[in-house]
Amino acid sequence: MTCIVGITDGRTVTIGGDSAGSDGWHVAVRSDSKVFQVGPYLMGFTTSYRMGQLLRYSLTVGEPDTWDVDRFMVTTFIEAVRECLSTGGYARNDNGQEQGGQFLVGIHGRLYVVGDDYQIGHTISGYAAVGSGYLVALGSLHSTARTPEVTSQQRAVMALEAAAELTEGVRPPFTVVQSE
Predict the structure, then answer these.
(1) Within 10 A of 55 (CB to CB), how many other CB atoms are there?
(2) Which of 10, 54, 66, 119 has the maximum number of C-beta atoms within 10 A of its C-beta?
């Protein structure tokens, strides 16, 4: 149960997230953030706090050293994530298919969605959301996409507020980080 949102204009990436931790029966507001920056990468996770902790404190991957950032993310970045999650005891094997969890990554003005199966998604809309509140958040992000007077930080908070209002398991306070 969570909501993570991401926005990019092609230069700057903004990622925001809520503070709910849930086991399906109980929701607790946690002080450890689901949104953070590691080197040049902005990240926001759902699925498991353990996965997020490993990404934040154990992931070792350099910055893209090529003009083909998509290729770097699909190969070098994902291989580092797989190794990090396996070494940390988090990666699962379901009938021969290795699985991790969902998270957003921002790098070099690009916003990526990493799926449970380690696929890399890169939408053309300039925004994405993951977690239980993602549909509500996407509606909010869509409705503010052509509103230049609203900043990306404001859009992220508005989407998270909508998800908290209409989705069980999404709770403030919200954390928003932005690339420089």
Answers:
(1) 25
(2) 54
pLDDT in tens, 127-140: 999 999 999 999 99
Q: Is 65 helix (H, G, I), strand (E, B) or coil?
A: coil
Q: Give tens-digit pLDDT for 48-65.
A: 999 999 999 999 999 998
Distance CA 92, CA 117 (A): 10
Q: How many domains does the chain have?
A: 1
For residue 25, what is the DSSP state? S
What percentage of residues in the chain have a pLDDT greater than 90?
Answer: 84
Place of tokens 């926001």: 44
CB 179 within 8 A of CB 42: yes
Mean pLDDT, range 89-103, rounded to an integer: 89
CATH of the domain at 135: 3.60.20.10
**Domain span including residue 82:** 4-178
